[in-house]
Amino acid sequence: MLSCVRCGLCLTSCPTYVLSGHEAESPRGRVAMARALVEDKARLTPDLIEHEQNCLVCDACTAVCPAGVDMDPIQVALRSAVEPHLRDRRSRRERALRWLAFRKIFADMRFFRLLVRALRLYQSSGLQWMARRSGMLRLLGLAEAEALLPPDLPDGFVIPQGQRYPAGERSRGRAVSLFVGCITSTALAGIDWSTIRVCRRAGWTVSATGGQGCCGALNAHGGDLEGMKAMAKRNIEAFEKEGGVPVVVNSAGCGAMLKHYGYHFRDDPEWAERAQAFSARVRDLVEIVRPQDLRFYRPLELVVTYQDPCHLAHAQKIRREPRELLRAIPGLELREMGESDLCCGSAGVYNLTNPKQARQLRQRKLENASLTGADVLVTANPGCYIQLQAKNGGMRVKHIVELLDEATAPDDAQEKVRA
């Protein structure tokens, strides 16, 4: 915090400042308020808490800061320190929901899969149709949240139990471990299956490492740092069994958190070295799959535009690789959109906790995408995928790996990996 020189270069990169023009909704404003708390020059008022928790932790300010201020660890530390003071202010219902989400659903994939199965039953049984037509969702204040549900939730999930999927015809004797994710392995399981197929076609043998779970990013950004560390330890132990092979991730948010495990355990003598070694192995999908590794069988006659996920562009500094992959697909035309790296409003569960700001950011993103005349809006993060597919005015939304999967599918389609 002491590094902040209040130069203001962060202002136009911050989504909440762009929307409001309010100094307290800017990165330098949030740093000033957090510093005032630490120095006992400010009280923990509801107004201060609101401005701090309006931060999407998108790292856009971090990426442009000339002084090296890093907003993510500031917000994680602040929210973790503030959480005990907020606990007593919450209703019993709020406390119960936080416990259920952070300590049960995200902490144990069995509960997460059970939740998604229940939501699929809600869709397939006709209950969703009834709830939407009756106006009950609006009456309960759930309409915005319910609209985020991906259509046609899958009936099968990617459950990592050590399965190995051998490399295809371009095998180079290389291996990767797949971090399957919580949302991606369940509600968006097709993205994980596409990832497995594309990696195999690029010459990688893929392992679905058993024992892994949620990355813990939502817990950390929600003030539950201890819960995140418990999840991190489980993942580190699970992937240590695979030796030193790369850990491939198709979720920008998960990838950013996994690459930061080393930071979060830096002062832990038992885990610091192990966490750092694990973080050094993590690679986003677009870092390990290169255009020259793939054989394209099918041209895709599409005009697409690409939106940079915050935690890929800002936190991981990956911008060039996804564009190179898209331009390599025969028949596909890539058109750049305005403000491609301004947050779409997903930011973990921000679209649930801050629906007004999330809705404004989504609309801004979709308007910029529409101006390109593209048929498809492409992203590289499941959270962005969910946020942008809801109420998007008809533009199709795709994860980049889905397009790569379609374009590289052999004509005989004899691969023995779930379609």
List the helices and strands and how they pair.
Blueprint (H helix, E strand, L loop, with lengths): L14 H6 L6 H12 L7 H8 L6 H5 L6 H17 L4 H14 L3 H16 L2 H8 L1 H4 L3 H4 L16 E3 L8 E6 L9 H13 L2 E5 L8 H5 L3 H16 L6 E3 L2 H8 L1 H4 L7 H10 E3 H4 L14 E4 L3 H4 L6 H9 L4 E2 L15 H4 L1 H16 L5 E4 L2 H8 L6 E4 H9 L11
Parallel strand pairs: 2-3, 2-4, 4-5, 6-7, 6-8, 8-9
Antiparallel strand pairs: 1-3
Helix pairs in contact: 11-23
Q: Describe the biggest sheet?
A: 5 strands, mixed
Low-confidence stretches: none
Q: Identify the overall geometry.
A: globular
Q: What is the C-alpha radius of gyration, as a whole number of Å? A: 21 Å
Distance between the termini: 49 Å
Structural class: alpha/beta
Beta-strand portion reads 5-15%
